[in-house]
């Protein structure tokens, strides 16, 4: 059984003794975004079976085959990780139709979680994952039938540019790209007809599409209800069939919808591209132009590219769907409705854009499209309030969160609920409200904008991503940060600010958890895969580690992908974030070979010297000895990092200098008993081998477990510090040094 996680009054995770703990690990893994049967990744050719087979899809064995679970979990444990964010999709649960759940997939998920529990040492929290609504609109998440529910025809998304899928770039015969799929094009689908419509309906259908009534409910209530039902069906089944993994503190909670987005809300003028929309790449239609394209009309749209100071218009192009519509005709919709037992309001006419149906736009007597209500989504019709990001988060999103939370707490009042607002936006203002309890966690995401969009690590300059999104700069050029040292500090400052923002708006008692953070590995046009030089990736991951350590933040890296390859990355929209790849398993490291490597290369020796105020000795802490399985881990030096596993007192600061091979931790120990204060530090031998590491502290004695790579530091109360430094192999052991010792 895992130790139960508690939360202190200051919003820090603690163990049952009150010692601070940090949860760090990975997202396992992006393969859940697409089915295993048929194995339909985002680089599978777009064809009719892509849609026809959707209801028959199976996600069993995603994220991982049952017989491979133990291997991958041990990989993660050897990195010092103790937590997994476990994504799943709505589609994986309910792809066949509304209310028809895939019990085989649910049972498979429970088996995976049981195996994780049996390996031990890993906490799991569940993530209902989505990106731009669905894989049929260029992302992942919702089943195909939800698009049909809205009256949309995904088969025509390509020609109408209602969504741009990587699948459309793949030749059906060769299975290769017909033309290169542009870097990070997929997020632009957030601002195209399909995803914007679905997310608007999901969060605001009752106010903005009153004619969209299906089976007696507004489409907002229908979609939200089905989503929540599906998620809670999975969670309830876990409690019912495997109560031990919840009671044993393996499954610790559930997150809300991954990366919710605003749809058309915050588009204050539908005839214009919002000025604060920084993501403009490729064809960039306004909302009104998307409406017209959706009904098959030709439109001339702007084309953009991304520069370091923001989007840059490169020209215009004519997009002509040639009369093909992104909306189901009456006959097509009638067949769909019969299949899914849907009855719609008589006011909901088929073959017409939902937004034309609601008189946002129409056709004039000359058969020209006319925008009648350019600010339709900018004003709440019930209150007259302006719908900006703050309003959306504290109203539309909050209504969903309250509904989701209520259902979850009916099932489980003891586990954690991870509250996730829109990406890189402040959480709702819930401080001192009943929607915050002692089991609420603030889940936030962070990606460095420049590294993400350009897939490179620029050591010369970067930008303040969070500052740009918060509107702090009149011109993005003022957000520039120069020099790698300042770039690292800027990243650290951004994460610290997000943490403080969470505390200010949710309450000091709410923990902050970065449930997604990461860097792309296919940097510099995949140069590392050709020459083996991962220095850019190491520097980028080290900068993230430095930023997280500054505030002792818990995190789950995006990601660990069991199907990652150099060619297709994480097999989803050319993303390549996985810290592990099968294509980097050129050297198989067993426990024996790794220990031999450490002895030969590092002067490893199982003995210690003494210091005046204590002693260091080698021990074996309780538990099974893990087997190092680093094969396939990329940028290992930057990912494998020391950190306080259990901290006796309050965290003050920490810093790991990868280049200088030094780790310094400062704490304020507040124990009130005469018993020794013990702080446990994960100390990887790759950085701090036992023949080449000096330790300097303000007080204390030490015990080290070389198998688990854990240093137990027994120290006095008050402000205490410990510095571990790797010295050269030729250095002489420190003898009689009053400030520390040499580990030998």
UniProtKB/TrEMBL annotation:
Enumerate the Gene Ontology biological process terms. ergosteryl 3-beta-D-glucoside catabolic process; polysaccharide catabolic process
Which molecular function GO terms apply here? steryl-beta-glucosidase activity
According to the entry, every stretch annotated as the Glycoside hydrolase family domain falls at: 69-133
Q: Which UniProt keywords apply?
A: Glycosidase, Hydrolase
- Per UniProt, residues of the Glycoside hydrolase family 5 C-terminal domain are 641-723
Q: Which InterPro entries match?
A: GH (IPR017853), GH5_C (IPR041036), Glyco_hydro_5 (IPR001547), Glyco_hydro_b (IPR013780), Glycosphingolipid_Hydrolases (IPR052066)
Pfam families for the chain: Cellulase (PF00150), Glyco_hydro_5_C (PF18564)
The family assignment reads:
Belongs to the glycosyl hydrolase 5 (cellulase A) family.
The protein's name: LAQU0S04e03708g1_1
Q: Which organism is it from?
A: Lachancea quebecensis
